[in-house]
Write a structure and sequence with these properties.
Length: 248
């Protein structure tokens, strides 16, 4: 289990006359057990990516994050995988080269899963990754993360540049291919698309976790997840009409 306890992240941001402090995360507390698909939702700048990067150890932070009771470091980091739009692959080498590199680096690398996903996405194996389209690069990033053999797979807007058909097919494949002790945490704005595939929804607003809902919680509310999210974020249904009226 990953445990996030009282985690805060602050940046120094340059103002007009002096540096000011910007809060990216504030007193975040969550537990992430094995065997779940979790949706991480929030507006741009809410703190989703920052939270993921803190868990991965890419950023310093206040508070504590542990994996099975131990600090996350070089001894257990291979239990975590990260698919990010910033991309973590080597652009000048081929997909096949990546496969062999991952096999050397990660003892639990799942070559059978890798090959099946490459075929599913119809990705070329002999082509340099720099020659892939943006959509293909994001697909390849996901393939590597899912095949690494990690227990916890973090995905930060993994479907950018992919059409709705590719995304829907991938959700079905993801649910089918995961082992019962693997956990996937997906940060995305596509709430309605993945609502039927997740076990849990974590909502972040203005650097704070404002709700943590299980599927049972959502079903008992009698509402759709998107309706709950809109309420939590004080969505104003009349804002479009007002904007249009002002432009006429």
């Amino acid at each position: 289990m990953i445990e996030v306890r009282n985690v805060s992240k602050k940046y120094k941001e340059k103002g007009v006359l002096k540096y000011k402090e910007k809060v990216a995360l504030l007193n975040c507390n969550i537990q992430i057990p094995k065997g779940q698909i979790i949706g991480l939702f929030g507006a741009n700048g809410a703190g989703k990516t920052t939270l993921m990067k803190c868990i991965m150890g890419f950023l310093t932070f206040e508070g504590e994050i542990t994996l099975d009771g131990k600090k996350i470091d070089e001894r257990n980091i291979s239990k975590l995988a990260f698919a990010t739009g910033d991309h973590s692959f080597f652009p000048s080498i081929t997909a096949d080269d990546h496969k062999w590199f991952y096999k050397m680096q990660f003892s639990m690398f799942n070559e059978k899963r890798y090959n099946a996903l490459m075929e599913f996405f119809e990705l070329p194996t002999k082509k340099k990754i720099s020659e892939f389209s943006l959509g293909q690069q994001n697909q390849f990033e996901v393939v590597l993360a899912i095949s690494q053999g990690a227990e916890y797979i973090f995905m930060d807007e993994p479907f950018a540049g992919n059409d709705v058909f590719n995304r829907e097919d991938f959700y079905e494949v993801l649910v089918s291919v995961l082992d019962e002790d693997e956990t996937v945490i997906i940060s995305t704005h596509l709430i309605e698309e993945i609502a039927d595939y997740i076990d849990r929804a974590i909502l972040i607003r203005k650097s704070e976790i404002i709700d943590d809902l299980s599927v049972d919680d959502i079903e008992e509310s009698g509402r759709l997840l998107i309706e709950i999210v809109k309420e939590k974020y004080d969505y104003r249904a009349d804002r479009i009409r007002k904007a249009v009226d002002q432009m006429r």
